[in-house]
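Allow me, if you will, to draw on your knowledge of protein folds for a short while. Thank you for your consideration; the sequence and its tokens are set out here:
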Amino acid sequence: RKTRRKSKAQKTRSGGRAMEMGGDEMMMTSGATGRIVPVFRSVLSRRALLRLAVALHSLFLWLLLLVGRRRRPDAASPAEPGRLGKARSRRRAAEEEDVRRRRALAEEVPMVEDDADADGRTCGTFVIAGARRNALFCRVWAPAAGAETRGILLIVHGLNEHSGRYLHFAEQLTSCGFGVYAMDWIGHGGSDGLHGYVPSLDYVIEDMEVLLDKIMLENPDVPCFLLGHSTGGAVVLKASLYAHIRTRLEGIILTSPAVRVKPAHPIVGAVAPIFSLIAPKFQFKGANKRGIPVSRDPAALLAKYSDPLVYTGPIRVRTGHEILRISSYLLHNLKKVTVPFVVLHGTADRVTDPLASRELYTEAASRHKDLRLYEGFLHDLLFEPERDEIAADIIGWMDRTLGLQAV
């Protein structure tokens, strides 16, 4: 009979030891969709890459100089503003129409499971103004009226998905006395913005803080947790490094966080900052159309990729650069993490790196921290066949954290 060794700080689930990962080289993907971005997959030498990077940098500076000259009032053509204005108006109108369509679809997403026993629990949707006066589509699930709310969890979904996908998990939380809030990022779900486009992940942090203000205003003295999945996990982890946010939290939960993400080729990292300024909304058409499996449950995969609110198009340049940027920031600041946290990761995850989660656990200065590795599990842990086990582990960690705070 196998002898299973577990510690309170680190556990490996589903039998066996954590799978050995071959190096730390990860391919940049579009996060929630698991689409690989195989850009510039050539066999150029390092010297050639350096020369190309220098040439592109010089070209970028020249373009900036040229654009600056053309934007001077005395050099502008009278007809040019009209043409540009009409083109911008058409693009803006198309984007606004798409937002209206997505918001209508978001409102139609069920907020209660068909077989759920609600027991007086309530739920609903609402729209609030974000940090830049952009409309944020949000959801709330609350325990039964009159029952004590033990704590609140704010869910920050992953790249390309939306808050409505977390219904089953939300109902598990409310049945245990926890309130749940969730918001759609900018460019996601029912929120404003071009679908699948994130001009800055710092915008997501700022919008999350706006919702956090509302939550705490409506629920004074109720302990609050954050949960972030994948790129959402990177967003939550970075937010926890800001003292004015960290002091308001009991702890954070990270599922498959994008702590370490590397481009498919070194040249991508070199040119991404340039192209994210020149053509931020350009899409990498070469993305793998089939994508990487993110769940071992065929029904969960079908539901995800047939969901019209899940973005399945190629990743945009600025969005990809933002993922690389936040990953680099986190890797340089792991030792500054002091918030209580639990990180959960499947050892077979091919979208984000399980070894980076182990590194976070090792490097973080937090006194109360936990690492859960699930042998053979994939990226979307809360949509795996063992989703109820994952949820129970999260709720158990929240219970223990509240118990520690009460001592």
